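#lab-general

N.A. 3:47 PM
ok so I finally got the sequence cleaned up, no stray characters, all 176 residues accounted for. can someone with queue access submit it? mine expired

B.Y. 3:52 PM
send it over

N.A. 3:53 PM
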Amino acid sequence: MAGTFLFTLKLLCSVFGSLLLLRAYLRYLGIPGNDPLVSFAHSLTQWVVEPASKFIKRTRNIEWPSIFVCYLVAVIYQFFHWLMGSGHGGVWPFVFGSAVLVVYWAIELAMWATVLFCIFSWVNQASANYRTLSYLCYPILAPFKKVIPVWRNIDFSGVAFIILANIVLALITPLT
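B.Y. 4:20 PM
back already:
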């Protein structure tokens, strides 16, 4: 029973935390508020970000309230993980472990966006989804594009990022 509860809680916290990070990333990129992806992330997270924005201010292009609420979601997950007897003792999981969990969610979000970007780039580069994903993934993939050459019109920078992201996720998983 506890395993099912923790699995469900982890899934919900991961999805909601990723939405909060997506909202912050979209603001960082300066995507206009009328974009469908911005509207989607905004409408699903506004109920919790709005109260946080009363005491945590946004900067020009960083959505600090979303990042703070994402951190709180990670703390709540860590608390229940600890409460159910699966977590470690002390303050470590609540402070550092929650911060690492937010980083984990950010890498996971970037990885899944890159997977979708790669699929769309191989299938339909004319779609609106491809353009949106390329706008989101370009800052992430740009360093890889500089190092990895295109081979027969196939760009392997996304694959390289996914491999590196999985290595980093495997390294930081014990810290969460």
